[in-house]
Fold:
Amino acid sequence: MIKCKKTNSEDIEFIRLVIKLDEELAERDGKEHTFYAQFNKIDKIKYAMVAHKNNEPIGIGALKEFEPEVMEVKRMYVLPPYRGKNIASKILQELEMWARELNYKKCILETGKKQPEAIRLYNKNNYSVIPNYGQYKNIENSVCFEKIL
Structure:
């Protein structure tokens, strides 16, 4: 059974999985990684989630306020052996419930075109593609999504 724990970006389990996420993204993004990495610092994340299986941390996700009533989904990651088992969807759904509890009306996010699994995840969870926002506005390899809560 998968259990999700609400925490923040100071949680050591969250930090350890962020390091693994960043290593994988550096490989996938190549020379573009430095651009994306600047927007993925975790020092100001108040709302982080760690998924556990048998008390082992296996996945993460986070929320960061983008603007009043809008949360941005950040730092979604599941360890490779646990992928394809709906764990990312569970984390995402837990994050959405948390955002609703905090009275947010919408979630937005950015992912890369080099992350087809992420694109499938967001499509499967009823996110709609939107024009690239903010710092991603003119970035060709970015895909942005939103979901009304």
